[in-house]
């Protein structure tokens, strides 16, 4: 399919296209740049809250790529809608009528609901990852675990119950308004299909700047790394598994003759008292290192670990690691969203602390295995996850 001269609006409510941010922003910028490369007349659209929460340089970054960014203002005088989209509906409808797009792509549930209500003849394509109702449930569980007030717990459970069922109904209803629905998490797509909408699975459209394989011979003490911002339910639960279960098991075998480094920003206020105590106890082997370019950090670590153990979404961090040929070790929960991940193929998969430790020791002792897995990891990025491959597969579904 040739997008040359085609007018396209790309809407993202909560995930602004950028290489300067983490996670799904790499998918949004990857798709935008590929559409531009294919000749599209592209306008990216997001909300003012999303822009205000982002670094000032992002607007300049997008202009440098020739991407026009429309920022929708929050009109709090109107009903918020199912996912907060109502505050932006009137201004978005005016933009659609003015621009008259041939295609509208939208990423995340707020943007999907916004586009679903728009009166347009454009071909609509929804892109979703996490299911909002599952995220609501996990946040409620996390709040229940952390908060000591019985009254607060009761209020939160009641509020979450109604939000949960409202989200389930809305998720199914809005997707019926689209010509093509893509889920970036396989198991979530299967759930949606069971409720009626037609949904296809595709990995996210991730573009990794400077992706390459570096054949580095690592020596010395075992070094394990993690990366990302630690402030949400998924990352915190993964950190809890690491601190409370995996590190103690590894210490039984190796003592303190290893190090675990976490690269990224973290919000200590989001940690419960048990996690704070665990971090203090593990401080002889575990350190928060702050932000460091992933490619640079990987050069000095044997293993890139993803201990996130909640079956939500698609882990862009795994793809980022593969793009630089990292030896990946991830929790089995991540394979529900990415079923192409097979243990011992391009990644190692573990389900419990004992399996994590077993794999860590095997990798560290067998450098041939380590190097083979690193090559396989990079090959998986090139053949499955690179933006050229994923966009090609998307175009075949549109055509």
Task: Name the features.
single chain, 399 residues, alpha/beta, Rossmann fold, 2 domains, seven-stranded parallel β-sheet, six-stranded parallel β-sheet, 16% strand, globular
Description:
α1 links the parallel β1 (about 5-10) and β2 (about 40-45). Helix content is about 45%, strand content about 15%. By secondary structure, the protein is of the alpha/beta class. The chain has a seven-stranded parallel sheet, sandwiched between helices. A six-stranded parallel sheet has the order 10-9-8-11-12-13, sandwiched between helices. The protein has two domains: about 5-205 and about 385-399, Glycogen Phosphorylase B (Rossmann fold), CATH 3.40.50.2000; about 220-385, Glycogen Phosphorylase B (Rossmann fold). The mean pLDDT is about 90. The protein is built from 15 helices and 13 strands.
Number of helices: 15
Look at the structure and give the mean pLDDT: 88
What's the CATH class of the largest domain, please?
A: Alpha Beta
The CATH superfamily of the largest domain is known as Glycogen Phosphorylase B
Number of structural units classed as domains:
2
Q: How do the strands of the widest beta sheet line up side by side?
A: 3-2-1-4-5-6-7
Low-confidence parts lasting 5 or more residues at pLDDT below 50? none
Broad shape: globular
Percent strand: 15-25%
- Helix and strand element order: EHEHHEHEHEHHEHEEHEHEHEHEEHHH
Task: Look up the CATH topology of the largest domain.
Answer: Rossmann fold
Shape-level CATH architecture of the largest domain: 3-Layer(aba) Sandwich
């Amino acid at each position: 399919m040739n997008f040359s001269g085609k007018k396209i609006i790309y809407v993202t409510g909560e995930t602004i296209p950028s290489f300067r941010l983490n996670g799904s922003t790499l998918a949004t910028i990857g798709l935008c740049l590929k559409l531009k490369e294919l000749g599209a007349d592209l306008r990216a659209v997001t909300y003012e809250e999303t822009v205000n929460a982002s670094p000032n340089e992002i607007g300049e970054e997008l202009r440098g790529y020739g991407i026009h960014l429309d920022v929708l203002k929050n009109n709090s005088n109107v009903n918020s809608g199912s996912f907060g989209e109502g505050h932006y509906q009137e201004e978005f409808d005016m933009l659609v009528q003015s621009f008259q797009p041939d295609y509208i792509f939208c990423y995340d549930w707020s943007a999907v609901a916004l586009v679903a209500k728009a009166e347009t003849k454009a071909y609509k394509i929804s892109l979703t990852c996490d299911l909002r109702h599952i995220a609501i449930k996990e946040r409620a569980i996390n709040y229940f675990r952390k908060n000591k007030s019985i009254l607060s717990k009761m209020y939160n459970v009641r509020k979450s119950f109604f939000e949960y069922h409202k989200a389930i109904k809305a998720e199914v209803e809005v997707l019926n308004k689209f010509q093509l629905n893509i889920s970036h998490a396989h198991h979530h797509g299967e759930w949606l299909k069971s409720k009626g909408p037609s949904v296809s699975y595709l990995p996210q459209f991730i573009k990794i700047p400077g992706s390459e394989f570096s054949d580095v011979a690592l020596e010395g003490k075992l070094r394990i790394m993690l990366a990302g911002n630690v402030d949400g339910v998924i990352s915190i639960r993964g950190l809890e598994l690491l601190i409370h279960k995996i590190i103690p098991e590894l210490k039984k075998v190796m003592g303190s003759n290893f190090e675990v480094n976490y690269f990224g920003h973290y919000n200590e206020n989001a940690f419960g008292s048990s996690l704070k105590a665990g971090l203090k106890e593990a401080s002889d082997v575990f350190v928060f290192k702050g932000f460091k370019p992933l490619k640079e950090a990987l050069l000095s670590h044997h293993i890139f670990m993803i201990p996130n153990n909640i079956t939500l979404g698609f882990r862009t961090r795994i793809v980022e690691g593969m793009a630089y040929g990292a030896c990946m070790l991830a929790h089995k929960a991540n394979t529900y969203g990415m079923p192409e991940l097979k243990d011992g193929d391009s990644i190692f998969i573990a389900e419990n602390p004992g399996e994590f430790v077993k794999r860590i020791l095997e990798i560290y002792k067998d450098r041939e295995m380590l190097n083979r897995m690193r090559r396989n990891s990079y090959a998986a990025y090139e053949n499955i996850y690179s933006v050229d491959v994923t966009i090609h597969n998307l175009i075949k579904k549109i055509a």
